[in-house]
Amino acid sequence: xxxxxxxxxxxxxxxxxxxxxxxxxxxxxxxxxxxxxxxxxxxxxxxxxxxxxxxxxxxxxxxxxxxxxxxxxxxxxxxxxxxxxxxxxxxxxxxxxxxxxxxxxxxxxxxxxxxxxxxxxxxxxxxxxxxxxxxxxxxxxxxxxxxxxxxxxxxxxxxxxxxxxxxxxxxxxxxxxxxxxxxxxxxxxxxxxxxxxxxxxxxxxxxxxxxxxxxxxxxxxxxxxxxxxxxxxxxxxx
Length: 238
Fold this sequence. Notes:
By secondary structure, this protein is of the alpha+beta class. The chain is 17% helix and 46% strand. Strand 1 (21-37) and strand 2 form a beta hairpin.
């Protein structure tokens, strides 16, 4: 009986995990612009050779690398008749990262239902894809946000196959690309630091199933059932 329950439990977990799938894209990019805005600039946006985040520099000419992950089961957040862009938001699995090897700078966004997601537009006259990963920080010493955004586009409609969440992106068809990193903290004179770069490579990893909350619930229920069966058997022997 116990072996049967364990088998059913594992089968249920496997089936549940198969429902959600993630796709991760790895990229490299080159920084071609950095800007600063805040009290120190009279709230004017000015070009600067580099910015520094917690002692880690990002300079024009630096190579960036990182990844972004999208959940293929992310629900549609916004679409209206006549609007060619579909926005997907509402999954904690949509996350991204950016780093600079030279300085050791790194940023990884946290999953957010309302601040992370992606959008797609698949049209004969051109495709576009955009990913946004944000992190909001609030503590006695830090209050503000960091974000990274990747934008891809073409004018021949070959970047995307459909307007559904993409399991692949045809980087060979990309005619315009941009990666943006932004740092904004109100208590520092409303200072905003940003970098802009161009992607130099993009590669997709195969989709992989990820555990859903239901998986853990089934696992807990199964363990309780197995435990109860073991106790009942022990009582019968006693």
